[in-house]
Amino acid sequence: MTVYLVTGAAGFIGANYVQHLLMWESSDVEVIAVDYLGFAGNQANLESVSDRVVFEKADIADLDAMEEIYRRYRPDYVVNFAAESHNDRAILGPSAFMRSNALGAQVMAECSRLVPVRSHVHVSTIEVYGELPPGDKWFTEGSPLNAKTPYSAAKAAGDQIVRAYMQTYSELNIRMTHCANNYGPYQLPEKLIPLAVTNLLRGRKVPVYGDGLQSRDWLHVADHCAAVHRVLHADLGPIPPRAATEPELLPIFDISARCEVTNLDIVRRVVTALGLDPAEWIEHIPDRPNHDRRYLIRPEKIETQLGWRPVHDFDAGMAGTIDWYVEHRAWWERILEEKGELGFDWGAVGPEAHRTPGDGAAAG
Ligand SMILES: NC(=O)c1ccc[n+]([C@@H]2O[C@H](COP(=O)([O-])OP(=O)(O)OC[C@H]3O[C@@H](n4cnc5c(N)ncnc54)[C@H](O)[C@@H]3O)[C@@H](O)[C@H]2O)c1
C-alpha cells in the first residue's frame, strides 16, 4: 500500500489533485487528505471521492498535530498544497497568510525530516518572482525572489525555508514547483473565472479591477496536477554543490502553458460564452492596491528534464470550465449561502479596512 498525504486537499487545486491521483493510481493507494477548512476550504470538493480518502482536519502550521498524523499514517509521498491563497484577503489580514504559507511550509518539511518520506513536493507560485518588467520575456527557476504583496511575500518566505531544507537535508528528496494561474473546476467563486460565471448567471455584472489589462499566465488545473505528480515521482539524483550559487540547479520546476491573457480578455470570453454583450455586462471598479501587472514563467526545465507538457488547449479548457460552473450551480450556491457574496470592491472598502486584523472577512 502506497500512502499519499495531500494537504490543502479541500481547496481548489488540492481537491483536483486528489481526484486525479485516485484515477492515476487506481489500486493499492491510501490518500490522507489534510485541510484545516479555512476560508477557501470546502469539504464538498472531495464529496465524489469521500469513500476513498481519509480526511484529517488539521493545521499544517501545528507541528504536534502534523507530526502525529505523519507517525500514524507513515506517508510515502507528500504534496503540500495548503496555503492561504486569496490575494485580496491577504491585504486585509496578512497574519493568517504568514502562518500557513511560511510557518506551515517549515512544519511540513520538518515532519518529512522527522518521519522520512520517499519524496515531498512543496507547491508554490509564479508570484514569488514579483512583477515582470514590460521588456522581459519571462522568469525562470534562477530568477531572484522579488515578492511585493503580502500573499506572495508569505509564499516567498515558504520558498526560502524549503530551499534551505532541500539543501541542508538533501537526502530528504524535497522538491518545489512554481505554477502559473490555474483555471478549472472547484475554484472558489471569489476568483476571476467562477466569479464572472456566477455573477452573470444571477444577472449581475462582472467587476474588473482597473483597466483589466493585468496580464496573467494561465494553465488548466489538470495540467498543473499532472506536473506536480511528475515532479513527485521523478528520479532527480543528488543536488549538485553548484546549486548553492546557481538556483536553477535545485529541484525546483516552473509550470506554465506559456499562455498569457489579460484579465479583461478572460472576462470577455466568459461573457461571450454565456451569450451576453461585454459592453453591457462588464464594469470597471477601482484596482486592488499594489496589484501585480504582469508575470510569465518559462516551463522549459520541466519540459526537457521531466518530459511534461500541458495537454489542455486554452479555448477548449476555458469552455469546459465555464460549462462546469453552469452545470454545478448547487455547488457554488451552497458556498455563497455559507460565505455571503464574494468579490471585492476596493473603492467601497476604503483605507480603514487595510487595518482590519484577522482573516479579512470584513470585506467579503
Ligand atoms: N490557484 C492558483 O492559480 C495557484 C497558482 C500557483 C500556485 N498556487 C498554489 O497552489 C496551492 C493551492 O492553491 P489553491 O488555489 O488550491 O488555494 P485554495 O485557497 O483554494 O486552497 C488552499 C487550501 O489550503 C487550506 N489551508 C490553508 N492554510 C492551511 C493550514 N494552515 N492548514 C491546513 N490547511 C490549510 C485551505 O483551507 C484551503 O482548502 C497554494 O499553495 C497556492 O499558493 C495556486
From TrEMBL:
EC number(s)? Answer: 4.2.1.46
Q: Which molecular-function annotation in GO is an example for this chain?
A: dTDP-glucose 4,6-dehydratase activity
Query: Which keywords appear in this protein's UniProt record, sorted alphabetically?
Result: Lyase
Q: What enzyme category does the UniProt record give?
A: lyase
The organism's place on the tree of life at top rank: Bacteria
Ranges of residues in domain NAD(P)-binding: 5-319
Q: Sorted alphabetically, which PANTHER family does this protein's record hold?
A: DTDP-D-GLUCOSE 4,6-DEHYDRATASE-RELATED
* Protein name in the entry: dTDP-glucose 4,6-dehydratase
Q: Which organism is it from?
A: Streptomyces ramulosus
